[in-house]
Amino acid sequence: QVQLVESGGGLAQPGGSLRLSCIASGFDLDHYAIGWFRQAPGKEREGVSCISGSDASTTYPDSVKGRFTISRDNAKRTVYLLMNSLKPEDTAVYYCATTTYFGLGCEIIGLLSARYGYWGQGTQVTVSS
């Protein structure tokens, strides 16, 4: 049974940092891409990063490029999202998700939520002074 459990959300000041964690179980991390998404109230879900299973290549949208870093530790079955230089517009519920496409990396999967079949429950991130 595939499970994804996020943690690490909370309140941060503008310009501050947070690190989110996603513990995965029930599938082989080496062969599936994992993405981080966020959804703010009244807005559509937005992909903010993806990391491939095979070579750990990454993808980011322009809105977070240079501020967010995704990484993975397969031995710990954990994917991280380090968020620096946080802005109020980063406030959202953050989700990790994994694809159901074996062996396809982020350059193919991209950040379309429809390509991710399993989702965690989400963790709230609030950026405010």
Characteristics of this structure?
mainly beta, single chain, 3% helix, 1 helix, 11 strands, 129 residues, 4-stranded antiparallel beta sheet
**Shape by Cα distribution:** globular
- Helix fraction bin: under 10%
| Average pLDDT reading | 95
Largest sheet: 7 strands, mixed
Write the layout of secondary structure elements.
Blueprint: E1 3-7, E2 10-12, E3 18-25, E4 34-39, E5 46-51, E6 58-59, E7 68-73, E8 78-83, E9 92-99, H1 106-109, E10 116-119, E11 123-127
Parallel strand pairs: 2-11
Antiparallel strand pairs: 1-3, 3-8, 4-5, 4-9, 5-6, 7-8, 9-10, 9-11
Protein model, in words:
- The model has no long low-confidence stretch (mean pLDDT 95).
- The radius of gyration is 13 Å and the shape is globular.
- The chain is built from 1 helix and 11 strands; from the N terminus they run βββββββββαββ.
- The strands form 2 sheets. Strands 2, 4, 5, 6, 9, 10 and 11 form a 7-stranded mixed beta sheet that branches.
- The chain has one helix at 106-109, and strands at 3-7, 10-12, 18-25, 34-39, 46-51, 58-59, 68-73, 78-83, 92-99, 116-119, 123-127.
- The longest helix has 4 residues, at 106-109.
- Helix content is 3%, strand content 46%.
- It is mainly beta and 129 residues long.
